[in-house]
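Q: Got a minute? One more chain.
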Amino acid sequence: MPAAFTLHRPSEADWAAIRDLRLRAVTDTPMAFLETREQVLAIDEAGWRERVHRNQHADATQVIAVADDGRWVGNMVSFISDGPPAYVERREPRGRRANLVGVFVDPEWRGDTGVTDALLEAIASWVTGEKGLGELYLHVSELNDRARRAYLTRGFTATGMVDVVPGDPVDREVEMVASLPLVR
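A: Always. Here it is, folded:
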C-alpha cells in the first residue's frame, strides 16, 4: 500500500506541479478531460499560473493530495456556477450550484488508499461550509465505467441529463449529483 498523504491548496508558485499532474491525468484518462496532451504541453507558465489563480477566487477551490515523498497524487476542483457550467451546451437556469471537475487520482493511489475520499470530503466541506450549498454536480464520460462506478459508490446518482462532449461525436457526458454531506 502507498505511503501516507496530506491535502494541499495550491498557490501560483505550484504551477509546474499542477502542469505535471494535469499532464499525467490527460495521459492516463484522455476521455475524462476536455483537452489533449498536446494542448496541455502548449500552455506556458503564465497560462498555468492563471489556472491556479482561477481556482483561488471566492467561487472556486482546488485540493491536491500530496504523498509523503512529495509526489502530487490527486486533484479535485470545484467551482460555483449559475445553472449548468459553461462547458455544458444546455443553459437552462437552475440557480447556483457546485460543480466538481479536474478529478484525477494517480493509478497507484486509487482504491482503498483514502485519497479519493479525502479529496472529495475536502471539496464537500467547502461546498457546504463556505458556499452553503447542499449538492455537488459532476459530468462523467459514458465511456469511463471506472469513474462512474467510483462516483456511484460515493453517493452520486445520474440526474437523467446527458450532454454531448465538445469535439467528440461518439462520447457523451452523464450528469451526476450527490446530496451533501456524502454518506458511504
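A: The chain has a mean pLDDT of 92.
Q: Perfect, thanks.
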